[in-house]
Structures are given as C-alpha cells and as structure tokens.
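For reproducibility, we list the full input for the guanosine-5'-triphosphate complex.
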Amino acid sequence: MKHNIKALEQRVVAALEDETNQGHPLHEVLEALWQYNQDQWSRMEHLIRVSDSYQDMMIQREKTLSERFDKHLRQLDKITRISDRYQTALREANLELEQASYVDALTGLPNRRKMLRRLKAEFDMRPESVRLAMIDIDYFKRINDEFGHLIGDDVLVSVGNLIELTVGELGHISRWGGEEFLVIFSQPDQAEVEACLKQLANTIRETHFESGDHAKIRTTISIGVSHYQAGDSADTLITRADDALYRAKNRGRNQVVFG
Ligand SMILES: Nc1nc2c(ncn2[C@@H]2O[C@H](COP(=O)(O)OP(=O)(O)OP(=O)(O)O)[C@@H](O)[C@H]2O)c(=O)[nH]1
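The corresponding predicted structure, in tokenized form, follows.
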C-alpha cells in the first residue's frame, strides 16, 4: 500500500491531538507510518545495491582497461626487442656480406676488388713507394688436366699460402683471378723486393704439392714487376706489371721480370 507522507503526517498530528483517541486510532496511523518507512528503506536498499553493482562494474571495467593497456605495453616492448634484434642481425649480416665481397672464396685471400681499393689507398698515401708483382702459375692447365680440377684448386690454395708466407710484412697479397696473384709492396727498397720475389720463385719451384696419390706435383711461377713512375695511375702500374709478366712467360717462364 502506497502512502502519501504529507497525509500521514497530518494523520499522526491529528491522532496525537485527539486526546480521546477515538476517531483516529493511533496504532493504525503508526502502522501506516511504519509501513511507509519500510517502503523507503526497501527503496534505499535497492538503490544501494544498484550503486554497488555499478561501482563493481566500473572497477571491473577499469581493471580490464588497465590489463589491456599492460598487455599492449608488453607487446610493444616485445616488438621493440624483436626489432632491435632484427636490426642488429641485419647490420651483422650486411657487414659479413661486405667482408665476404672482398674475400676470394677458394683461397680466403683478399680478392681483386679489395686489392683495387688497397692500391688506390696506397696511391693516395705514397705513390712513389708502390711496387706491384703480378704472379702467375706456369702451365697450370696441365695440372688441372693431369690431376683434376679439385687437385688444381689445392695447388692454387698452397701457392697462395706460400706467397703470403714469403711476402710477409713486405706487402699485401691477393688472388687477382684464375691462377694469378697480385702483390702490392709499399717498399722503397727495390733490392729487398727483388730478393723476396726470387726467394718466392725458388720456394715454389722446390715445393712438392700433394696430388692425392703417390705422384707429387711440381710447378713454377712467372712474375712481372712494375714500380711507380711519374704520372702513373693504378691502371698504368697494373698494365706494366702485366706486360712484364707477359715477357717472363715469353722468355720461358719460371723467372722474375722488372718492367
Ligand atoms: N682448378 C682450378 N683451375 C683454375 C681456376 N681458375 C682458373 N683455372 C685454370 O687455370 C688454367 C689457366 O690456363 P692458361 O691460361 O692456359 O694458362 P697456363 O696453363 O697456366 O699456362 P701459362 O700461364 O701460359 O703458363 C685454365 O685451365 C683454367 O681452367 C680455379 O679456380 N681452379
């Protein structure tokens, strides 16, 4: 039963003023007032419950949002770390590629590309000291024909090692291509270069290279040498070393010719 509070108040006042309490029985009015309070209380409880569940909902939503935010942060962190690792790997791979592009795959020696750079650097620093030695294995085709290409490869590697060992600190060696090697000497002392190259020719001549069976392989090298002259460029110096090598071949091989 719904009660109007104003009307109830009037009934209470009237009941209290009626000393006889005959026309307005007080207990009925108080009953109605009690009922009214009960209704208000129930409504209040309902409101509190609604408010509580609303608060729970908001807390839950905040929690969910903050969890999502944390998750995104973690993912971002992971992506950043992956990206960092990827960039580092890429940098290393590029570096490796660049280094590989300067190395001859068979002998592990610097290749022609690397040597041209080095020659240019030497030319920029002290051109007048630069000497080149173009070294070519004599009749190398016969070694391939007789023992096979793989043994030919082994001989190439061994010759490369011997050149490197003999030249040592005096110069830089590279595989120029095929069975040709180029040495850059930044060495003003011609006699020292000459002695080094003659010793190298002797060493190769006296070496018995492995053939894979009982036979040992013997070979020789021809060497053409050029040294800086006024007005030279890297190209003209290489050409003169090539010409000197050509003459060494024509004169019967197994010798050093200075151009
Ligand atoms: N096994 C092997 N052989 C190579 C390689 N590069 C070039 N050759 C061989 O080297 C030989 C060079 O032959 P030629 O240019 O005729 O020279 P050569 O037989 O050394 O004779 P001369 O230089 O005139 O004394 C060829 O048979 C090429 O196939 C290589 O990487 N491995």
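The helical segments are 5-17, 26-100, 112-125, 140-147, 149-167, 190-206, 234-250. The first helix runs from residue 5 to 17. Both points were considered when choosing residues for closer inspection.
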